[in-house]
């Protein structure tokens, strides 16, 4: 699927100005260029174009609110000076798996004063002598390089944190609902108890009919676009501290995260 069609699908009947996160991973770019993305995406904060065949970011539109840009596993070898103009508030940039060979290629990033995290895994530049020390000197605004700070302390996984915060919010909402139920009138409680008994009976019947599922109840689920292995593992590690998590791979490059 080409990038324009993918963007149209990702909109899901929304206007570009309503979109804050846009994932275009594994689609096809035309001649290595970004296409179909316009400055109408004025509220966009996260953009992911992993493995789409990009060779340049010159056609990136003006995205003043963009904070995180995923460009890993492409064929970009230069032209990064446009990022300071097009994405002046960028804080996280992932260029892993691109054709970046020397420090002069990333030197324009020093104009991104808000840049805190830069990833260059699997780029030739990482093989240079004193690579980490030189990058931190070149880009003093950086806090993390390839996931670690100057003292080799690992950066927190922002994606896992976001999902964990979402789970906490859900639990708070559930608690609020329970408190509201406690305040209900006695008559309403009797009706609700009767309905709950009926639902429990139905659930038991369904459990008996499905040996594979047993008595496990799936409380909620979420779909997300294909992410690289590290992100999935990091997210799994963070979420498993809160509750049991299962990952099932489906067709069309989707991963399902199930919270039983």
UniProtKB/TrEMBL annotation:
Domain U2A'/phosphoprotein 32 family A C-terminal stretches: 128-146
Chain spans, region Disordered: 166-212
SMART domains: LRRcap (SM00446)
Keywords, ordered alphabetically: Leucine-rich repeat, Nucleus, Repeat
Predominant location category: nucleus
Compartment annotation: Nucleus
Gene Ontology CC entries for this record: nucleus
Entry-linked InterPro entries: AN32, Leu-rich_rpt, LRR_dom_sf, U2A'_phosphoprotein32A_C
Entry-linked PANTHER family: ACIDIC LEUCINE-RICH NUCLEAR PHOSPHOPROTEIN 32, ACIDIC LEUCINE-RICH NUCLEAR PHOSPHOPROTEIN 32 FAMILY MEMBER A
Protein family: Belongs to the ANP32 family.
Function of the molecule: Multifunctional protein that is involved in the regulation of many processes.
Name of the protein: Acidic leucine-rich nuclear phosphoprotein 32 family member
Lineage, highest ranks first: Eukaryota, Metazoa, Chordata, Craniata, Vertebrata
């Amino acid at each position: 699927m080409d990038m324009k069609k993918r963007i149209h699908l990702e909109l899901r009947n929304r206007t570009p100005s309503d979109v804050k996160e846009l994932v275009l991973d594994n689609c096809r770019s035309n001649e290595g260029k970004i296409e179909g993305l316009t400055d109408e995406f004025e509220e966009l904060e996260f953009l992911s174009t992993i493995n789409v065949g990009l060779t340049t970011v010159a056609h990136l539109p003006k995205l003043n609110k963009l904070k995180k840009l995923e460009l890993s596993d492409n064929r970009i070898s230069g032209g990064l000076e446009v990022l300071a103009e097009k994405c002046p508030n960028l804080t996280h940039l992932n260029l892993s798996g691109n054709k970046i060979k020397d420090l002069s290629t990333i030197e324009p990033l020093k104009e991104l004063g808000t840049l805190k995290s830069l990833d260059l895994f699997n780029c030739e530049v990482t093989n240079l002598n004193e690579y980490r020390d030189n990058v931190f000197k070149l880009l003093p605004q950086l806090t993390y390089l390839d996931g670690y700070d100057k003292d080799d302390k690992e950066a927190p996984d922002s994606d896992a944190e976001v999902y964990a915060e979402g789970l906490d919010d859900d639990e708070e909402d559930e608690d609020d609902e329970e408190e509201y139920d406690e305040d209900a009138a006695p008559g309403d409680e009797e009706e609700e108890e009767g309905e709950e008994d009926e639902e429990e009976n139905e659930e038991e019947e369904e459990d008996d009919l499905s040996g594979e599922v047993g008595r496990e109840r799936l409380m909620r689920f979420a779909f997300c676009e294909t992410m690289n292995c590290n992100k999935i593992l990091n997210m799994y590690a963070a979420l498993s501290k809160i509750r049991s998590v299962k990952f099932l791979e489906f067709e069309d490059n989707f991963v399902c995260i199930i919270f039983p």
